[in-house]
Amino acid sequence: MLPPELKYGRKTFPPISECDLSSVSHRSIAADLDGTLLKSSLSFPYYILFAIEAGSLLRGLILLLFLPIISVVYVFVSENLAGKMLIFVSFSGIKIGDIEVASRSVLPRFYAADVRRDSFEVFDSCERKVIVTANPIVMVETLVKEFLGAEKVLGTEIEVDPRTKRATGFVTEPGVLVGKWKRLAVMKEFGDDLPDIGIGDRKSDHDFMSVCKEGYIVPKDQFASLVSPQCLKTQSLFQDGYLERPSSYVVDYIWLPLRFVLYPLRAYFNLSLFEGILKCAYRRMC
């Protein structure tokens, strides 16, 4: 039976800057992803990128139109319900093969460019590293294991139709991994040997942070230093200037989804122009 302070969660945690990396007792860690290991606390830009890459430009535009509704639900109704809506619009009807390809080849490059230095240093100093996130496992597993060096990701499981091999848009039980479900997932994964450190960035992370031996909050900081992608476990190059992040944190949230929409348009017109040049050259040769 857990003590009351562990069962219901503490109200406050010290900032991650107070975590002593020299302590030999820090062997295991459970960490949130968005806003904790990643500087951006919003997962929406990555969902819209996924929707375009694994689905279509139309799906990305539909998701963009749903953003105000999802935001209102997140703030005034439930983080769980908002997560289900986001996943349904992004994943429903997409082939599992296309989901896996986008999650392996496209998303990790953008995720890895947003890894926060202070929290990653604490995370990387531990031997056993586990990510606890509301994001679908298939969406972040490559980042977690190959780029961040974690052994496992505890996240939301999407439902796949075994006959058509397409995502239904719904999630399996217990649903979107937030709040108490994160705590239960951590307790199930670690058993009696609970994590030495738990780090998160929001109130809904307090549940799982409270069952860890030490808990640290990652405060929002628009000027937080980022880890160079070349310093992660897997190196990746970032050459596309159109997708470099702007300096303003607010502009980042507003402009980045639009950039994800404009990127495939730019690629389409570039390919069309290139095709036209080839056809013109071919006619001249003939």
Helix and strand sequence: HEHHHHHHEHEEEHEHEH
Strand content: 5-15%
Assigned CATH superfamily of the largest domain: HAD superfamily/HAD-like
Q: What is the CATH C-level name of the largest domain?
A: Alpha Beta
Q: How many strands, which pairing sense, and closed or not: the largest β-sheet?
A: 5 strands, parallel
Overall description:
The chain has eleven helices and seven strands. The protein has two domains: 4-237, Rossmann fold (3-Layer(aba) Sandwich), CATH 3.40.50; 254-286. It is of the alpha/beta class and 286 residues long. It has helices at residues 4-8, 44-55, 57-76, 79-91, 96-105, 107-112, 117-125, 137-147, 180-190, 206-210, 249-285; strands at residues 28-31, 128-136, 152-156, 158-161, 166-171, 197-200, 214-217. The strands form two sheets. Strands 3-2-1-6-7 form a five-stranded parallel beta sheet, with helices on both faces. A two-stranded antiparallel sheet has the order 4-5.
Give the SSE map.
Elements: H1 4-8, E1 28-31, H2 44-55, H3 57-76, H4 79-91, H5 96-105, H6 107-112, H7 117-125, E2 128-136, H8 137-147, E3 152-156, E4 158-161, E5 166-171, H9 180-190, E6 197-200, H10 206-210, E7 214-217, H11 249-285
Parallel strand pairs: 1-2, 1-6, 2-3, 6-7
Antiparallel strand pairs: 4-5
